[in-house]
Specification:
Length: 319
């Protein structure tokens, strides 16, 4: 799906209008959200959705998240139980995706749901994404704007590095504030399941839902996209390292360097916001210095540390 040249749009009225126009025309566009950049297309268009899968090299069985401007728009597409309503009232707009039963007459392309009878919905908080959703006036399908299996993008430059020439445009809204993808829940009044750790820490959710149900049976894929090797830089990634091997690219936590750091202060929110930028940078340095591996210091497993460790363990998984 070569477009030749990828337009770079600014986060002003003209850029928002142009992005919405391209989406309405069935084109695909990189757009900022508060979590990561999304590769956006009209969720009701088979052509646009096919273009998303094509540009990312994404397996067709892996369904897309649908982004909406309002709760009313969500209610037209899916059934929200009491737990879903409570979660929506507390955490939308924000880094929460809910997998919900599809309603008849939902109008989405069957490519979005990959043939499932459920759909993943999210109301993003990013003002630019919200402005494009308003201007376009319909549901927008948007997976993360990276080639399938690679590191997620948190800047427009990351989007271009992975997809330039394969997408119509990217809207540069600056770096993403949260830095890891949304938390994915399947809300149920009898026990809400956690399908993906993400930008909304589970501790915050459990205050409202009670203990989340996680099924960690090896090989059992909850969200179909949770394939074990993902977010992979070119060089192998080693976790929980003491960073003593100077031949490797060393990524620190709660310290400066030695080569890169997720956070000098030990702040997990800052570490999440920096995660994919640091992985992109580590990948570049590993190539430049011909380093055998990327080593990462241990990260605490609480709050946003859970999502960070989830992404790091996928980056380190055997390919
Ligand atoms: O923060 C985010 O969620 C970003 C931004 C752009 O919104 N999007 C994102 O999309 O991370 P993606 O496509 O990279 O991840 C979507 C995940 C995949 O793991 C997919 O399998 C899962 O959501 N998913 C989508 N529909 C589903 C469904 N009906 N049931 C279970 N999992 C579903
Ligand atoms: Mg992704």
């Amino acid at each position: 799906m070569a477009h030749g040249k990828t337009e770079i749009l600014m986060p002003d009225d003209a850029g928002v209008a142009r992005a919405a126009r391209l989406v309405a025309d069935g084109q695909i566009v990189g757009l900022p959200t508060e979590t990561v950049y999304g590769l956006a297309g009209d969720a009701t268009s088979d052509l646009a959705c096919a273009r998303i899968f094509q540009a990312k090299g994404r397996p067709r069985f892996n369904p897309l998240i649908v982004h909406l401007p309002t709760l009313e728009a969500a209610e037209r597409i899916a059934d929200l139980n009491a737990t879903a309503r409570a979660l929506a009232a507390t955490f939308w707009p924000g880094p929460l995706t809910m997998v919900l039963p599809l309603r008849t007459g939902h109008g989405l392309s069957p490519l979005v749901t990959a043939g499932l009878d459920s759909v993943a919905l999210r109301l993003p908080a990013h003002p630019v994404m919200r402005a494009v959703l308003q201007a376009f006036g319909g549901p927008i399908a948007a997976p993360s704007a990276n080639p399938s299996g690679r590191i997620s993008p948190t800047t427009a430059a990351h989007v271009l590095a992975g997809l330039e020439g394969r997408i119509a445009a990217v809207l540069d809204g600056g770096p993403c504030g949260v830095g890891v993808e949304s938390t994915i829940l399947a809300p149920s009044d009898t026990g809400t399941r956690l399908l993906r750790e993400g930008g909304l820490p589970r501790e915050a959710v459990e205050g409202l839902t009670g203990p989340l149900v996680t099924d960690t049976t090896p090989g059992k894929v909850q969200a179909p996209g949770q394939l074990s090797s993902h977010y992979a830089p070119g060089a192998p990634v080693v976790l929980n390292s003491d960073l003593s091997d100077p031949k490797t690219i060393r990524v620190g936590f709660a310290q400066d360097g030695p080569d890169l750091t997720l956070t000098a202060s030990g702040d997990l929110t800052e570490a999440a916001a920096n995660l994919f930028r640091v992985l992109h940078e580590a990948d570049r340095l590993a190539t430049e210095r011909n380093a055998p591996a990327i080593h990462v210091a241990p990260i605490p497993g609480t709050g946003l540390g859970r999502a960070i460790n989830d992404r790091l363990s996928r980056a380190a998984a055997p390919r």
